[in-house]
Structures are given as C-alpha cells and as structure tokens.
Amino acid sequence: MTDLTDLGVRAIRDGVRDGSFSATEIATAFNAQVAGARVLNAFLVETPDHALAAARAADDARAAGEEPRPLAGVPIGMKDLFCTRGVVSTAGSHILEGFVPQYESTVSQKLWDAGAGMLGKLNMDQFAMGSSNETSAFGNVISPWKRSDGGPGSNWAPLAPGGSSGGSSAAIAARLCPAATGTDTGGSIRQPAAFTGISGIKPTYGRCSRWGVVAFASSLDQAGPMARDVRDCAIMLEAMAGFDARDATSLQLDVPRWEAGLNAGLKGRRIGIPREYRVDDMPAEIDALWQRGIDWLKDAGAEIVEVSLPHTKYALPAYYIIAPAEASSNLARYDGVRYGLRDPPEGANLQDMYAATRAAGFGPEVKRRILIGTYVLSAGFYDAYFTQASKVRALIARDFDEAWKSCDLLLTPTAPSAAFALGEKSADPIAMYLNDVFTVPSSLAGLPAMSVPGGLDAAGLPLGLQVIGRALDEQGVLDACLAIEERAGFTARPQAWW
Ligand code: GLN
Question: Which of 110, 265, 320, 327 lies 20 to 30 Å (CA to CA) from residue 74?
Fold first, then answer.
C-alpha cells in the first residue's frame, strides 16, 4: 500500500469515505511526519490532538452511518496568520508571541465545520511581509528542495521556500500535510507554491472572509488554499470561501461547486499573453517554460492571443506604497496595551512604553514597511505618493478590463526565477520585492490567480506558471491550470534529507 502521507486531499477524503483507511490512521501518519521534520522549521506550533479529534469525529460519524462532511478525515496545516481559538497565533512576529486568540477566524472555522483537522500552525514571513520566509521572528523555514548542481556558491545551499506562506509550501512539498491555508497580498500563495512545486490559488478579493486573519494590507489580503494539485485546491477553496457578515468586503455570493465544474477542455477559450511580462533579464528557462505553457493550452483547445497591459511596470512601485500604507495603519494596534508583547522600560510613561514595545516587538522588515507607510500617508506627501499610487492601481485594473475584451484568461510565469538560496536576497529589499513582479498586478486588481507547477529548471528546481482570470472566474482559472497540470506531468518531489 502507498504511504498514507503520499495521499492528497481528494484521495484521503475518498479513502476515508469508502473505508480504505480510517481518518485516525491518516491523522496519526501525518502527525508523525510533522514531528519528524522539525529541522525544516515549517511548523511553529504542532497540534496533533486537534488533528486526532477531528479524525475521531470523522470515524465515529462514518460508523454511525452519517452523511460525510466535505473534508472529513483530512488533516491540514494552518498558516499562522489565521487566529485559532486556544492555539497560539503569532503572524510570525515576536510582538504576538504567546498570543492565544479567544476566537476562531471564519476561514479556519469553515474548514473545521467541513470536517478538517489541524496538524499545526505554519511558519511565515512576519505579518506576511516577505518573499522568502526570512522575516519570521522564529527562524526561516528551509525548503525541502535542494539544487542538484550544488550552486550557488556552496554545495547544498539551503533554499528559500518562498513567502510569505513558506511554512505552508514547504510542509506540503515535504508531505507533512496534504494541504494548507495561505494568504496572498501580493503573491504570498503563488510564489511559494511555484518555488516548491505545488499549486495554490488566490481567489477573487472578497471570496474568503478576512475576519480573524491578522491584517497586513486590507484592500489586498485574500486567503486561499495551497495543495499538491488543482483538484485539491478546488476542494479546499469550496470549504474556505463564502459570505461573512463580519467582513465588510466579503462578497455576498454563493460558493460555486468548483470541483464538480472542473473541465480541462479549453475549446473556445482565448488565453492572453501579456507582452509587458517579458521583463528584462528574465532567465531563458522561465521564457521556455512560458512557451511550453502556451503550447499546452493550445493543445487543450485554447486560442492564444497577444495582449497588452501597459501599466504593468508601475504595479510594483504602486504596491510597495499601498501595501505599506495600509500596514502602517493596521499595525498601529500593536501598542503593548491590548494584547501581545509589552516591554516597558523602568519608570516608563505611556509613550515610552509604546515605543519600547514596538521597537522590541517588530522585526526590521516590518519596521521598514511602517516607516514607508507612515511617510507616504503623511501630510504633504499623501497626494504625491498614496493618491498617485491609488490612481495607478485604477489604471492597472483598467488594463485588465481592456484585456478581457480580447481574451478570457491570462498566462504568465509565476515568478521571475526558481527558488533562491536563503540569504541570497535578504540584504537587498528591492531585489526581494522584484520577486513579486508577476503576482502583484492581479492582486492590485483583485483578480483570481493561480500557480501550477510547469517543470524543473536545469538545477532540478520547480518552476510555476500563473493563470489570471476575470473577477469571480475561479472556475476558468482552475480549468486552465488543470489543462496545464495534465500536460506538464509534474511528479518531481524533494528527496527526503530531513
Ligand atoms: N512579497 C510580498 C510582500 O512582501 C507579498 C507578500 C504577501 O502576499 N503577503 O509584500
């Protein structure tokens, strides 16, 4: 029999339903995997009892002949940005160290209601700010992948799992969990998925409730699933999405049956190839991957058209004004008074206590964003930066609206490179920010976008392709990604060294 931890969401769900194995066996197997892979630092908290309790409930319900819940028996990982009742939730930051929420985020509650159990809380870039997991206050995650050519610099240089959902991506790639939650503000689901050879979808802004998700940039933050394949992402997203009165930006729409609707035949669909995504210095391998993706979609029946998104080059600068601006406002709540760290110096007044707590609690990248955000929102600079960036954002959204007149979906690479080594970009924030060049525009426009593995580079590292769709067309995005998945035949996985 195959190792139970090699199974994905669908295989586990179906196997538990038909009695091939029990949910308890599954939870036990994954709990052991998690405990055996601590060197990856993917989990900040392990919650084996939560996974086992959900599994027992699934087994008992089956024994009692009850109708199975959609995710009965499926244990998952939870990004630490989601507040989980009674379980420490830190957003990867020292300022929330030891914070135990009294409530459950809507998305995690929906997953528990669907029958899933939690294996633990997953490490991440601090407050979801980063692309490599190196901004976590609790040490970076190490990617389970290794370069086969020994570079750069040294043999077996440890690689970044991507970020900010790097605990999620590493855990899935290393088979520590079949699926996990992620969040994506400017690429944090898609880029780590691409770096680790898994799939991940950021749905349309408003599909998943933000209630109980620690806020980074509220007009961009969106939750979504990460898993080993497209179908598993569809199953997870159905459980996570849906209207929530507690999030004012939540969409009042029924959740489509994405899994049942999956169809990899793309006849009649037009796929746009945005000219402006051919950036300077793009590695030839990324270009070749993109071309393979185009050929696969043609093979699936789609028509390929060239389109233009003329304001693409302004997306990154606009994002790195808007996201820090919103972050500087959102993070004002960490004042040492209501929750989290309090670090008052001897004889401190209130102002000193705020300053000392925030100085001790936030990491350098978070401080950089707060400084940038406060600056661009300050009187005198507001119009020059924040208003200007908001206008650019509107133009970027308009570019997509124009493109949809001649195509239904867009195909691009997910990231401009394969995974880089830990430490390779951490000294240069701009080099790090450039990782988001292909993922940020769709975030600014609130559109659904997904990364799916497309192949390996010469060093044996995974590369991802991104499909972007019209608002609310997650089905189209999932279908095109399924068409790629069926043709890419991506079966590579990291060799266990941990
Ligand atoms: N890497 C981007 C940033 O640092 C995106 C992060 C995210 O999507 N949460 O802001």
Answer: 265
Going by C-beta distance under 8 Å and a sequence separation of 6 or more, which residues neighbour residue 291? none
Is 155 within a domain?
yes
At 201, which helix (H) or strand (E)? Answer: strand 199-202
d(CA 135, CA 13) in angstroms, rounded, equals 35
- 313 catalytic residue (yes or no): no
Q: Is residue 13 part of a domain?
A: yes
Tell me whether residue 164 is one of the annotated catalytic residues.
yes
100-125 residues labelled b (16+ CB within 10 A) or e (exposed): ebeebbbbbbbbbebbbbbbbbbbbb
Count the neighbouring beta carbons within 10 Å of the beta carbon of residue 2: 7
Q: Does 246 map to a domain?
A: yes
Question: Catalytic residue at 188?
Answer: yes
Binding site membership of 366 for ligand 1 (Cβ less than 6 Å): no
Give me 162's structure tokens. 């991507």
Cis peptide preceding 164, ω within 30 of 0 = yes
Domain that holds residue 71: 6-265
Question: What pLDDT does 398 receive?
Answer: 98
For 241-363, where are the alpha helices, taking DSSP H only? Answer: 258-261, 284-299, 315-330, 350-361
Q: Give 386's DSSP letter.
A: I
Q: 184 C-alpha to center of ligand 1: Å?
A: 7
pLDDT tens per residue, range 240-267: 999 999 999 999 999 999 999 999 999 9
Quick one: tokens of 3?
Answer: 């190792």
Number of domains present in the structure of the chain = 1
140 lines ligand 1 (CB under 6 A): no
How close are the terminal C-alpha atoms of the chain, in Å?
A: 23
Q: Is 186 a pocket residue for ligand 1 (Cβ < 6 Å)?
A: yes
Most ligand 1 atoms within 8 A of CB, residue of 80, 185, 191, 213 to mutate: 185
Q: 468 CB under 6 A from ligand 1?
A: no
| Domain assignment present for 239 | yes
Quick check: CB of 135 below 6 Å from ligand 1? Answer: no
The contacts of residue 155 (CB under 8 Å, 6+ apart) are none
Question: What is the pLDDT at residue 175?
Answer: 98
Which among 89, 93, 132, 164 is annotated as catalytic? 164
Residue ranges of the chain with per-residue pLDDT less than 70: 1-2, 150-156
pLDDT score of 157: 80
183 CA to centre of ligand 1 in angstroms: 9
- CA 402 – CA 395 distance, rounded (Å): 10
pLDDT at 394 (0 to 100): 98
CATH number at residue 62: 3.90.1300.10
